[in-house]
Design goal:
This protein has 8 helices and 32 strands. The longest helix has 38 residues.
Length: 513
């Protein structure tokens, strides 16, 4: 029994030993394959070629092996030192190389050696053995350097920086012919350079710029910001106020471009401030509110500071404001708060809080005066607003002379000047010959009578005028306008005889009040 156990142990240890030897052999085999695979990578040949290039550049024997003829002297380069400066580029310990796949084939590979993105040399490799696949995943193949080509050729470069930057190329100013304005930036074109140019770039704060090469482009490292913010905010760049550019919609565009990272601070008028990082979403709550002058507006229970609102006549009334001293004043608030949860409150003249819709940014409370469906008898007894409106329409079609219309108009007003210029201008001569039909006017409507002040009102008038052209074709000319009337004494008889005169008109589009 013991003898059988001894034999079993003997053969068991032999079996285990064989497995260990097989395992060790397999590990060494795989290791050797990996080493071989790594050593025969084409990159190893490229690295050896780079070492050779750097060595020859260092001991000045470079040009004994590589030819470079027909070098011309250009405006930004000195022909005498050009070759030496080219060799100095090889002194960089961090030269990089990459395989240009678009130029490579199965048995041939093309590599470019670069210094800061500038191509120094082209290394061509060729395969010297067929491809062998081992362990089903490892491709092993012999490669050798077929040729090395220094790339000392003329190149054109372009780069873009803001127009207010100071730029020198190899210590020289750039000719205006090599600059092209693109908005608030300038594109520089440097033609026919053998070596990467040395740029001196300064921003308006004196920071020096860094750059790198990307084929025929020079990429300048810019800290470039563009923000569009609502009115009512202040922007500081490195503790200096940045004014920005006002857009048509009233917002402010800020363009900030520097060569060193700026400190950008955004402030509101309610004690909030934020240091801005590019791409960051700002917690802004903003709105424009137009109210009568006796309304009040609060932000977080604080009155809106004077910097955020203006007071004046409604723009619709501006054209006749000099004739009506008691026109109501309106306040326009441009509120922006760096707190999305801020509470903005509007209180009307009766001390009632007006609810503001969420997500809405524009509120207009200036047209809250009640409109009357009919003209008050006192006014209708003094002036026929429909007749004046129709007289204007007849004047525009050359069916009523300026001399007969003039009594309806307020002398010196905007509407008076429009009529005078039209009567004496060339446009009236292009009116087609026609006759007025009977009835001349139909679909007459008068509505939305509104007292603007004691001496001023507006009323909406619409009708259709019917005409027949000389050739027989009938024409329908529709009018739908808001007419503004002013009670004014236009006489010079030293007596107070005010009458209602047409001062201005405004077309009503799509029946929107």
């Amino acid at each position: 029994m013991n003898k059988n156990k001894s034999k079993f142990k003997f053969f068991y240890f032999i079996y285990v030993g064989i497995l260990i030897l097989i395992g060790i052999s397999t590990i060494f085999y795989i290791k050797n394959l990996l080493v071989e695979h790594e050593e025969k990578q084409p990159d190893r040949q490229v690295e050896k070629a780079i070492i050779e290039l750097k060595s020859k550049a260092k001991d000045k024997s470079f040009w004994e092996f590589f030819e470079c003829n027909n070098i011309e002297e250009l405006s930004f380069e000195d022909k005498t030192n050009l070759k030496n400066k080219y060799l100095e580029l090889y002194e960089n310990d961090s030269l990089k190389y990459n395989c240009e796949k678009s130029l490579s084939e199965e048995d041939k590979l093309v590599y470019y050696v670069e210094n800061n993105g500038f191509p120094l040399a082209r290394i061509n490799l060729k395969a010297t053995s067929p491809n062998k696949v081992k362990l089903m995943v490892l491709n092993i193949r012999d490669w050798e350097v077929e040729s090395i080509e220094p790339l000392l050729n003329k190149k054109d470069y372009k780069f873009i920086v803001p127009a207010n930057f100071y730029v020198l190329v190899n210590g020289k100013n750039v000719d205006d012919n090599d600059k092209k304005l693109q908005g608030n930036k300038v594109e520089y074109t440097l033609q026919g350079l053998y070596l990467p140019p040395e740029l001196t770039i300064k921003d308006n704060e004196g920071n020096l710029g860094e750059y790198f090469f990307q084929k025929d482009k020079i990429i300048v490292n810019l800290y470039d910001y563009e923000m569009v913010l609502p009115e009512g905010l202040n922007v500081e760049v490195n503790d200096e106020i940045n004014i920005g550019e006002k857009l048509i919609d009233g917002r402010i565009k800020y363009k900030i471009c520097l060569l060193a990272k700026p400190k950008i601070k955004i402030l509101d008028y309610f004690g909030n401030e934020i240091y801005y990082e590019k791409g960051e979403k700002l917690p802004i709550k903003y709105m424009t509110i137009k109210t009568p002058s006796d309304y009040k507006v609060y932000v977080d229970e604080k009155e809106v500071p004077s910097e955020l609102f203006s007071k004046g006549v409604d723009p619709d009334y501006q054209s006749f404001s000099k004739f009506v001293p008691d026109l109501p004043q309106i306040c326009t608030y441009k509120i922006a708060v760096l707190n999305e949860k801020s509470a903005i409150k509007v209180i009307d003249s009766f001390d009632k809080v007006i609810e503001l819709e969420e997500e809405k940014h524009d509120f207009n409370f200036i047209n809250t005066v009640e409109c009357l469906s009919e003209i008050p008898k006192k006014v209708s007894d003094e002036v026929d607003v429909l007749q004046i409106a129709q007289n204007w329409s007849l004047f525009m079609s050359k069916d009523l002379s300026f001399s007969k219309l003039i009594n309806d108009l307020l002398p010196g007003s905007y509407q008076y000047e429009v009529a005078r210029k039209y009567a004496n201008g060339i446009d009236i001569q292009f009116t087609s010959e026609h006759t007025l039909m009977n009835p001349t006017f139909t679909d007459e409507f008068i509505k939305n009578f509104t007292w603007i002040s004691n001496n001023c009102f507006s009323v909406d008038i619409s009708f259709v005028k019917h005409m027949k052209l000389k050739g027989g074709r009938e024409i329908k000319d529709s009018m739908n306008d808001r007419f503004y009337f002013v009670l004014y004494d236009a006489t010079n008889d030293n007596q107070d005889n005010p009458t209602w005169k047409l001062a201005s008109m405004k077309e009503i589009i799509d029946n929107v009040k």
